[in-house]
Amino acid sequence: MNVLFVVIALTIVYFAFLYTSLKNMGGLKGERGRRINPIAAEKTLIFLQALLLAGLVGIDVGVLDPKSIVVMAYIVAIVGHVLLRYYYSRVM
């Protein structure tokens, strides 16, 4: 039950940060905004796929619980995308 509260809290923080970053960047209206989002999403997806592959191996070996893999993947997807959007908004 505690994991659920952490996931809900992270989701709320994610949407608040996403709203703030979209407001500061002018949304996805400009060419810069339209370039940042796909790049951040692609990098997040690549990392998420590697994490899921490692998780499947961990489940097969019996080291990890499937529930923990789902939670880790969700947290990495949320936090990773926010951090990469922030990074690319600074770099590009």
Describe the structure.
There is one protein chain. The chain is mainly alpha-helical and 92 residues long. Helix content is 88%, strand content 0%. The chain has three helices and no strands. The chain has helices spanning 2-25, 31-61, 66-91. Helix 1 runs parallel beside helix 3 and helix 2 runs antiparallel to helix 3 (66-91). The longest helix is centred in the middle third of the chain and has 31 residues, at 31-61. It is flat and about 45 Å long. The mean pLDDT is 80.
Key features of this structure:
mainly alpha, about 90 residues, about 90% helix, 3 helices
End-to-end separation in angstroms reads 40 Å
Our count of helices gives 3
Please tally the β strands and state the result: 0
Mean of residue pLDDT values: 80
Given helix and strand content, the structural type is mainly alpha
Report strand %: under 5%
- Unreliable residue runs: none
Percentage of residues assigned to helices:
over 70%
Shape: flat
Succession of helices and strands? HHH
Rg, alpha carbons: 15 Å
The profile of the biggest β sheet is:
none
Q: Would you kindly provide a brief summary of this structure?
A:
With 92 residues, the chain is an all-alpha fold. The chain has helices at residues 2-25, 31-61, 66-91.
List the helices and strands and how they pair.
Elements: H1 2-25, H2 31-61, H3 66-91
